[in-house]
Amino acid sequence: MDTTELRPVLAGKTYFIRTFGCQMNLHDSERVAGLLDACGCLEAADPAGADIVVFMTCCVREAADQRLYGQCNSCKSLSPAPSGKRVIAVGGCIAQRDGEGLLANVDNVNVIFGTHAIAHVGELIAQAFEDGGRHISIAEDDALSAVDMPWHRETVYHAWVPIMTGCNNFCSYCIVPYVRGREKSRSMEEVIDEVNGLVRAGVREVTLLGQNVNSYGRDRYGAPRFAELLRKVGETGIERIRFTSSHPKDLLPETIDAMAEVPAVMPHLHLAVQSGSSRILKLMNRKYTREDYLGLVDRVRERIPGIALTTDIIVGFPGETEEDFEETLSLARTVGYAQAFTFIYSRREGTPAAKIEDPTPHEVIQERFDRLVKVIEDTAHAFNQGELDTVVPVLVEGASKKNDRILQGKSPKNQTVHAPLPAGVDAQDWVGKIVDVHVDRARTWYLSGTVVGAPR
Q1: If you average pLDDT over every residue of the chain, what do you get?
Q2: Which of 71, 208, 213, 368 has fewest C-beta within 10 Å?
Q3: Taken in order 419, 20, 14, 154, is the CA torsion positive or negative?
Q4: Maximum distance among all alpha carbons in the chain?
Q5: Beta strands of 20-80 (E only): which ranges?
Q6: Within 10 A of 200 (CB to CB), how many other CB atoms are there?
Q7: Cβ neighbours of residue 79 under 8 Å, at least 6 residues apart?
Q8: CA-CA distances (angstroms) from residue 30 to 36, 37, 213?
Q9: Three-state secondary-structure class, residue 248
Q10: What is the mean pLDDT of residues 425-437?
Q11: Which CA distances in Å does 418 have to 86, 196, 390, 422?
């Protein structure tokens, strides 16, 4: 991407990006940062030190809207920008959904760019600096893609690799297909070329991204080819492969086989269930039953013993009864999740579920949510006990936020691991290295132990 024309306007200006929501938003933020870097901009530590403040948004839950409005309004009280002028930009799913309508809630925004217009963010911001006006772009542009933009990775050892965008599932509660569009898969050759380049650059772990990675290739090749992609990515020499998100209805036997047979694929699967009630799953348009899901879990565990299973669960979907909720609790106990992201249902205008009336009091929904959290805490604690007195290879992320003499990293099962640093070692020296840790303690949300051997 040629940024030559933008540099006279943007060079030397500082920027700050705040990201809300999913991993795809994190990837989009890295691309926006890369483009601003290419224009000669410099990253700032906080909004007060930035000429350009970018909010990358998520619209899955209502709280995200309110949070964005609060963040934008807080920019009004910041000290003057270093250059004397500050541009506020909003991108991501809320920008795509609301477009110009966003200005009704935030009157100090200069730039709005949708999920399909990320490649235009540089020129939009440059125009705002030049004329002081408001510039909006939410139209899809097939000629330019976020993956073609420069890249500013947050870490040297890990990279997000989008393999597809959009979603065809139209779950009744979900706004994502309306703001991200229909599924579009990148070519397998393009993905493999990107991973090969990352390996040459020293990246040790990649996370393959898509709203539903299991359907990768259906739009391009006529049938899903995610299993084949996993095998080919494994042949690049990358040391760790993760992926998200995974829809249960499309998790094919050949994908499970690839997960079991490709050494680089980590023994962790995020398989969103959303509810343990077949009745609610039908209302959600999830296209599988409770029995289907549990059968899938059995097949995964038969092929990959000890795998860490994580999930998403919604509490309070319209019409959910106590019996429905008890089925969710029962399923969570049966599966024994290593972790779960639990949410209270958030009504999203434009989705089919928004039309369903529900008389259930909020206090009842909150009480159910609290019960679910307790069950997940119990299953997570029980799962982690299986790591006691074992040695796990940990990819070091840095020092613990609470103690700079304690390293923090991730196990193959995506567990957080802590261990004291040996004398004379700085955590930054080990960032991106893999160290073996003997697990001495297994808590609900982390493992801790002792480093054994040298980093590699």
Answers
A1: 93
A2: 71
A3: positive
A4: 64
A5: 42-43, 52-57
A6: 10
A7: 48
A8: 10, 10, 20
A9: helix
A10: 96
A11: 40, 31, 14, 13
- Which residue is associated with the tokens 């909150």? 366
pTM score, whole prediction: 0.89
Give the other-Cβ count within 10 Å of 323's Cβ: 9
Q: What tokens were used for 98?
A: 């609301």
What's the pLDDT tens digit per position in 330-348? 999 999 999 999 999 998 8
3-state secondary structure of 13: coil
Percent pLDDT > 70 in the chain is: 98
DSSP string of 159-214, one letter each residue: EEEE-EE--S---TT--HHHHH-S-EEPPHHHHHHHHHHHHHTT--EEEEE-TTGG
Q: What is the mean pLDDT of residues 304-321?
A: 97
Give the tokens for residue 144. 């330019």
Quick: pLDDT tens for 243-276.
999 999 999 999 999 999 999 999 999 999 999 9
Q: Rounded CA gap, 448 and 450, in Å?
A: 7
Q: CA-to-CA distance for 154 and 28, rounded, in angstroms?
A: 12
Backbone angles phi, psi at 207, to 5 degrees: -115, 115
Any idea how long the chain is? 456
Cβ atoms of residues 104 and 62 within 8 Å: no
Q: b or e along 65-90 (b: 16 or more beta carbons within 10 Å of the residue's beta carbon)?
A: bebbeebbeebeeeeebbeeebbbbb
- Stretch 394-420: mean pLDDT, rounded? 97
Q: Does residue 408 contact residue 417 with C-beta atoms inside 8 Å?
A: yes
